[in-house]
Structure formats: C-alpha cells, structure tokens
Design goal:
The chain is α+β, with helices and mostly antiparallel strands. Helices cover about 50% and strands about 10% of the residues.
Length: about 425
C-alpha cells in the first residue's frame, strides 16, 4: 500500500513537472518549439489545465500555424469557468480559424451559454453574432434557451448571420421541447415564414409540445394552405408521440389481442434476430408480448442476465419510471403446451400468476422448466448466431433492484459491455 502511495505521488509530481516544462516552451523564441509545446500540452488533455492561461495568450502568436496548434490544444484540454470571459473577449477579434476553435471550447461550458446568447442581441456586430451562433449550435441541449433568438436571426438581412442562424437552428431543433412556451407565444403573432418554422419545430418536440396542441388546431383551420398542412401534420405527430408516451405508463390499457401468429424483429447491438409467436401456445403471454412491442417497451432495454447455455433475459425498461408503472401489472399463467427448448421465449416469474414484462430466451435445452409453470410463447426463427453473441461475461451480477431504481444508467455505468435492444418491432406481412 505504501509503495503504491509513493508511486502515485511520484506520478503526480512527474505530470506537474511535464506541464511546467511544456509551458516554458510556449515562450521560446523558436516557433517550432512553441508549436511542440502546445501540441504536447494538448495531448495531455485535462491534465494540462494549469497551462490554459498561457495557451490562451498563444492564440495571438505571430505564426498562424502556432496559433492553430494553440487553438487545438485549447479544445483538447477543455476550458474552465474562469476562461469563459476572456475567451468571449477574443471571439470577435481572433482570426476566423482561431475563433472557430474558441467557439468549440466555449460550447462545452454551461457558463458560456448566457454570454453567447447575449452576444446575439446586437445584430450589427455581425462577426460576434456569427461566432456566437456557431458556438451555440455546437452546445446541444444546454443551448436550448437560445432557440427563440436564433429563430429570429434566420430572418436577418445579413446573409452570413442568416446562414449561421439557420445552421444553428438545425442543430438545436431536437431540443425545441425545452422552450415550448416561447414557441407557442411566437405562434400567436401574425403568421409568416417564421410561423411555419415554429410549427415544424413543435412537431419534432415530442410530448413536451402537448401544450401547443390548442394553438396548432387553430392554425390547422387557417386559410393559409401551407401553414394549415404543416399544423395538421404536427398535430398528428404530437398526438402519436404523446399517446405512446402516456400509454407506456398505463399498463391497464394495453389490452390488444394479438394475431394468431406474428413475428417481431429485434435490432440489437450485436445484430438482428427474429422471433415468431404462436398465440395458441400461450394466449395471455402472446397478448402481453404483442402489446409491449407495439408500445416500444423493449427499445433501449438491456439483456441484463445472460448465462452461458441457460438464458438471455431482458424486459426491464431503460426508464425506471416506466418499469415502476409495470411492476404490478401481472397476468395470469398460461397452461403449458410447448416446451422450453433452445431458442424459445418465456416470461420470467416470481411465482404463480406474476408475469409482467421480463422475458428470457433459452440458450440451451431448458425443458426442466416446463414442470415449474414456465409457458413458452415464441421462438427465435432467424439470427440465432446474434443471440449467441450477446455478452455473457457478467452472468447474473446485475442487480434487478438497482435496474428498477436507476434503469439503463445503472447498467451502462456498472456493466458497460452488456448488449441492448435498439428496436423491437412487428414485422409486416
């Protein structure tokens, strides 16, 4: 233990020494040495944070290729909250290629979002406006509050600002759901080209756009054919998304009768396999499985218990709130008609009449489970090699209680090699 501690101390000292030595290179008279110093500091990543002030100063180096390397190092190392203000000051004065790298560094910091949005207020400062738009477009979800202002700038008289705003809006569109109230307010204005764009943003916002439905209904009755068509399409998209999202939390409503025979295609991280279900084998199980697939319940779920030639188990939702809604949604047992041979599917149970959403695929001959009440309802009919490739290195280590509590986050953190279901969908005949 003592030797390990000494090793860690020496390692830290060596790292600090390297940063100090490399930082000294940034002041060398030779541009090649300065370039090498910036390059090597960048390669150290966050360990070189102590050198950030000197690297920021290097953004004004007289040699363009040295400036570029300093900019790349800035992005690789990542800035701290303290660097946001000085970098904002450089954003409009640095050469374009450098300001783009500064934007990339700023986009990673939540503290930079407000200053970047403020920079959009003065459209006359075209350079700063364009660079701020570029940075916000890279920032992702945390830049969602900028969407209304970015939308305004898509009508800018300056072609450069207009294009930068359009590019940023395209990147930020997936997070429109965070600013639904502001977007609905914009719909209340005199209809114009911007209104049409707002409608399209709301259409892709998902359940969060539910509050916009009354306003969209008014627009769907508009005499403006283009706008009315877009609003009608948005209403259909939002209603479908909202209905599915709500249904995932309402197991009591999942009562569709399954077809006598149907197939489900599982697209996983290992590839695709197909399951065929015959309702007469286990009617109640086949109906439950059918409803879960229709709802998209298995999308994103992990194969959390994979054990050699025994089973590959799945059926706990990636969102723990959804799993909680189904925890007591039990169905009665089906009489045993088939057998749990290799490749068959069966619901897991915790005793009589306790089937909910968990399912396992038999990886070997599990006919011994027949007498214990496990009624198989389907069978893998293609892609067996994919099933056999599912990662089984963790066995039954994943804690089901923790999956119920944290969902996919727990599994991705503690068991990163587990395979998952990207999509489970009914195959069309």
């Amino acid at each position: 233990m003592r030797a390990l501690l000494i090793s860690l101390i020496l390692g830290s000292a060596a790292t600090a020494g390297s940063v100090k030595e490399l930082t000294a290179k940034l002041f060398d008279e030779s541009p090649i040495v300065r370039y090498e110093g910036a390059r090597d500091l960048g390669a150290m990543g966050t360990k070189a944070r102590a050198a950030l002030p000197e690297i920021i100063d290097m953004l004004g180096d007289e040699e363009p290729w040295v400036r570029m390397e300093a900019g790349r190092a800035l992005v690789r190392i990542g800035i701290t909250a303290k660097q946001v203000k000085p970098l904002m000051g450089r954003l409009e004065v640095a050469p374009t290629e450098i300001s783009r790298l500064i934007s990339e560094a700023l986009a990673t910091r939540e503290e930079a979002i407000s200053p970047l949005i403020d920079a959009l207020a003065d459209e006359r400062n075209r350079r700063l406006c364009r660079e701020a738009l570029y940075a916000l477009g890279l920032a992702g979800r945390k830049a969602a509050p900028a969407i209304p202002r970015v939308l305004e700038l898509t009508n800018s008289a300056d072609p450069g600002v207009k294009k930068a705003a359009s590019d940023a809006l395209r990147r930020l569109a997936p997070w429109s759901g965070a600013v639904v109230e502001e977007l609905v307010t914009l719909l209340g204005e005199q209809p114009n080209e911007k209104t049409w764009v707002v409608v399209r943003l709301l259409a892709g916002a998902g359940p969060a756009a539910k509050a916009a439905i009354p306003t969209l209904r008014d627009l769907a009755a508009s005499k403006n054919v283009r706008l009315a068509t877009a609003a009608d399409k948005a209403l259909k998209q939002i209603d479908v998304v909202v209905t599915i999202a709500d249904a995932l939390f309402q197991p009591q409503a999942a009562k569709l009768r399954a077809p006598d025979k149907y197939r489900v295609r599982f697209t996983t991280t290992q590839g695709t396999f197909v399951v065929e279900v015959k309702r007469d084998l286990a009617p109640l199980g086949a109906d439950r499985f059918y409803n879960l697939v229709k709802l998209g319940f298995f999308d994103g779920a992990h194969f959390f218990r994979v054990m050699g030639n025994f089973v590959a188990q799945f059926g706990l939702h990636a969102n723990p709130k959804v799993s909680a809604a189904w925890k007591r949604a039990e169905i009665k047992d089906d009489p045993i008609k088939g057998s749990n041979k290799r490749g068959t599917l069966c619901f897991a149970t915790a005793g009589a009449d306790t089937r909910t959403t968990q399912i396992f695929i038999s990886l070997g001959n599990n006919s011994h489970l027949d007498a214990k009440g496990f009624a198989q309802f389907g069978e893998v009919v293609s892609g067996w090699k994919v099933v056999k490739k599912l990662h089984d290195g963790y066995g039954d280590q994943p804690d089901q209680a923790m999956i119920q509590l944290e969902g996919a986050k727990y599994l991705e953190r503690e068991f990163p090699k587990l395979d998952s279901i990207r999509k489970a969908e009914l195959e069309e005949k």
